[in-house]
Design a protein that fits this description.
The protein is of the alpha+beta class and about 260 residues long. It contains nine helices and nine strands. Strands 1, 2, 3, 6, 7, 8 and 9 form a seven-stranded mixed beta sheet that branches. The chain is globular, with a radius of gyration of 18 Å.
Length: about 260
């Protein structure tokens, strides 16, 4: 079946998740200001992951010995953020930082560098046209000439993790006009595979014995994908209402510019 990923007249768009949902400890005074907390809530609300693990997942008491971020009776998984360092740097320095004083009372401190400009890379753009050979060549040289080019080795560090991993792509997908959910998911899946196929192929060469999953948000739902033969296959969605920590952190939005 052919899927028009451009969906002429109603193209797929995205915004980046609020800073508080992807920068750990960004909200001062909130203990759960950590994306790993709501990803744990996500997999514990997912039939797919509950079946995979034969039960609920828990965080280890300590990760000093390299334990996974979440452990179930029959499965273990790590959580990784799939984003460029320049994007995260921009968020951490240019976004207003919230401080939760008491329930319902939040102060916002000015950003660290209010007059600065940071050129931030979007991960899907910088990876789209890079072959597996290109990625291997970048890995051999490790660093590149500019900050945005140095984003790629950092991404490779993440993708080389020799564990089962759930990648959080911090995108909220959307269409200007409402379309059927199945069609929207098909378009999103095709778009993701168009951008990340070679990155997934690279991971299969580096860590062939470990599973790879990816999640992003559409229509107040976390979409859950699994890598299969270097492509992403959609498994299921979980409503964001099942991840209260994500909803709480989303409430601390800032004036950081969004991307279309």
């Amino acid at each position: 079946m052919h899927i028009d990923i451009h969906n002429q007249g109603n193209p797929l768009k995205f915004s980046v998740m609020p800073a508080a949902t992807i920068i750990n400890r960004f909200v001062i005074g909130i203990e759960n200001s950590n994306y790993e907390v709501y990803l744990l809530e996500l997999i514990n609300s997912s039939d797919f992951f509950l079946n995979k693990g034969k039960g609920h997942y828990k965080s280890p008491i300590s990760e000093e010995n390299g334990q996974y971020d979440a452990e179930a009776p029959d499965y273990e998984i790590d959580f990784k953020l799939l984003a460029t360092q320049t994007l995260l740097m921009g968020y951490s320095t240019l976004a207003l930082q919230p401080e939760a004083i008491t329930k319902g009372v939040t102060f916002y401190t000015s950003c660290k560098r209010p007059r600065s400009r940071i050129k931030a890379s979007q991960i899907h753009v910088i990876l789209r046209d890079l072959s597996v050979n290109d990625l291997e060549e970048i890995r051999r040289h490790k660093t590149r000439r500019t900050c945005t080019e140095n984003d790629i080795p950092e991404i490779l560090n993440t993708i080389e993790t020799r564990k089962n991993i759930l990648l959080l792509l911090p995108y909220i997908f959307k269409f200007d006009n409402q379309i059927q959910l199945d069609k929207a998911i098909d378009i999103i899946t095709c778009s993701l595979n168009n951008d990340f196929h070679n990155l997934l192929s690279y991971r299969k060469k580096i860590a062939p014995d470990f599973d790879t999953y990816l999640t992003a948000v559409y229509d107040n739902k976390f979409l859950i994908f699994e890598e299969n033969q270097s492509n992403l296959l959609f498994h299921e969605y979980v409503s964001t209402s099942e991840t209260p920590t994500y909803l709480e952190l989303s409430g601390y939005d800032t004036t950081y510019p969004r991307n279309e």
